[in-house]
Design goal:
Blueprint (H helix, E strand, L loop, with lengths): L2 E5 L2 E3 L5 E8 L7 E7 L6 E6 L6 E3 L7 E6 L4 E6 L8 E8 L4 E2 L3 E5 L2
């Protein structure tokens, strides 16, 4: 079955960096467009970035453009989210999603940006 396992979250000071990982299994990773989403307390889940399966095209939400970078390693079936210049408003649970079939979500990893 499809499994997505996020890791790499934690507490970081404003201006700091974190790299999230999402390890996938149960499907052909190289054929799937992968996305990152986040959900802050009391807010709806919002899209952050995606990486397409063909051509490796990437796109970002305006709120993270220039600070976050999505990448993927098809040999490891893993998608990453490098987050730089973190702000308190980036505090959220971060989820990866595989865009195939009905869509599959990981369990999320908490990122807290605070001094």
């Amino acid at each position: 079955q499809v499994q997505l396992v996020e890791s790499g979250g934690g507490l970081v000071q404003p201006g700091g960096s974190l790299t999230l990982s999402c390890a996938a299994s149960g499907f052909t990773f190289s054929s799937a467009t992968m996305s990152w989403y986040r959900q802050a307390p009391g807010k709806e889940r919002e899209w952050v970035a995606f990486s397409t399966s063909v051509g490796g095209r990437t796109s970002y939400a305006d709120s993270v453009k220039g600070r976050f970078t999505i990448s993927r390693d098809n040999a490891k079936s893993t998608v990453y989210l490098q987050m730089n210049s973190l702000k308190p408003e980036d505090t959220a649970v971060y989820y990866c999603k595989a865009l195939l079939g009905p869509g599959y979500w990981g369990q999320g990893t908490q990122v807290t940006v605070s001094s």
